[in-house]
Design brief:
Largest sheet: 2 strands, antiparallel
Strand order of the largest sheet: 1-2
Order of helices and strands: HHHEEHHHHHHHHH
Distance between the termini: 15 Å
Number of strands: 2
Number of helices: 12
Helix content: 55-70%
Structural class: mainly alpha
């Protein structure tokens, strides 16, 4: 009888634990705002619960699908084609907060840039598996990867969404570096991208204001520095044990978007240092177990897919928490598994399902 394959239980429990906490904290952070704005105090709770159920179902399905199916060229190019068309089409959608990032389907927002990260991970992993022995040949390996990833990054920048585009580029960069990219190319890429990133950062007035507010939030406490100041107040007043669930004050129209981009500030205020640290530990566990899966994967494709998916979660968590704590300029990147937002939660849980499937095959190799 064939032995039943088992996924990494620690990775699974850390992920599900964050999703369960998300439903509780989104409800706590959004109830008053939802009542004031929409006269529906349970609106964000119901949406988050729906997305969480859908996401966990997708995770469970993906856990049972052999990850090696994703390296088929037809599948990869179909995904890239669909994502590319969606990223172009979304540019013609109605703007929301001066950005065109979402489609609205049945009242639920769909963000194509989230799917772009997953499609690019499969593409880069497939390319690296086939061309890893010649990774430092520009025309053979680096140029094809750069053209595809660069096109996706460029389309996302047009939305505009600087944070997601840079996250996608960083994920691809980590995967390529792990494949054995020469340090000469790393240095050259850094020297090339640094001025480009500077031009992008200073090329838009709102990005310049965010940077200056990060450097001196008290210079404009009621304007561009307001978000960071309110976030730091929320974190600081939580103390060790917090004010208690539903007891936070900063979410009451002081902290902008408390249920999405700044949910970690609400967690820090209501659950204190203990709750905030527990969340950090969960992300550290996910990163540790994900890298462990990448190292023990049975083939090169699985190894790079695991690395890409782990980097995707780790980078988003690092950036979001750094923004909340005033360690980085404000960016609209949600906290994985915790922030309100369907597309991000669904795609992240799909990615974790794929990662858990890789871990299932990795465990079979170790046994």
């Amino acid at each position: 009888m064939a032995r039943k394959l088992k996924s990494d239980p620690v990775l699974f429990l850390a992920t599900v634990g964050l999703v369960c906490l998300s439903i509780i904290m989104v409800w706590s952070a959004s109830a008053v705002i939802a009542m004031e704005r929409y006269q529906q105090p349970y609106m964000f709770l119901m949406k988050q619960t729906l997305w969480a159920c859908m996401g966990l179902a997708v995770l469970w399905i993906a856990m049972g699908v052999d990850y090696r199916l994703y390296k088929q060229e037809k599948f990869i190019w179909a995904c890239l084609g669909i994502v590319g068309l969606a990223l172009v089409a979304v540019l013609f959608s109605p703007p929301v907060n001066n950005a065109r990032r979402w489609f609205s389907i049945g009242g639920l927002g769909i963000q194509p840039s989230e799917l772009a990260k997953l499609a690019s991970i499969f593409f880069v992993a497939s390319m690296l598996e086939r061309r890893i022995t010649r990774i430092n040949e520009i025309g053979y390996s680096l140029l094809p990867i750069g053209l595809v990833v660069g096109t996706l990054v460029g389309l996302i920048l047009l939305e505009p969404d600087f944070g997601t585009s840079m996250s996608l580029a960083l994920i691809a960069g980590v995967m390529i570096f792990a494949a054995g990219l020469s340090y000469v190319y790393v240095a050259a890429a850094g020297l090339t991208l640094l001025p480009i990133a500077g031009l992008i950062m200073f090329g838009a007035a709102y990005r310049r204001r965010r940077l200056f507010a990060f450097l001196d939030p008290w210079g404009d406490p009621l304007g561009d520095g307001f978000q960071l100041i309110q976030s730091l107040i929320a974190v600081g007043t939580g103390g060790v044990t917090g004010r208690g669930l539903m007891g936070g004050v900063q979410k009451l129209f002081f902290l902008p978007e408390p249920h999405s981009d700044f949910i970690y500030a609400v967690i820090s205020e209501e659950l204190g240092l203990i709750g905030a640290t527990a969340v950090l530990i969960c992300f550290c566990v996910i990163t540790w177990r994900g890298l462990r899966v990448a190292i023990n994967a049975p083939d090169t494709f699985g190894s790079f897919v695991a690395l890409g998916l782990t980097t995707m979660i780790a980078v988003q968590a690092l950036v979001n928490i750094s923004v909340v704590l005033g360690m980085m300029p404000t960016k609209g990147i949600p906290l994985p598994f915790l922030s309100a937002g369907g597309s991000s939660l669904l795609i992240n849980l799909l990615g974790m399902g794929v990662l858990l499937n890789v871990s299932r095959h990795a465990s079979s190799q170790q046994a």
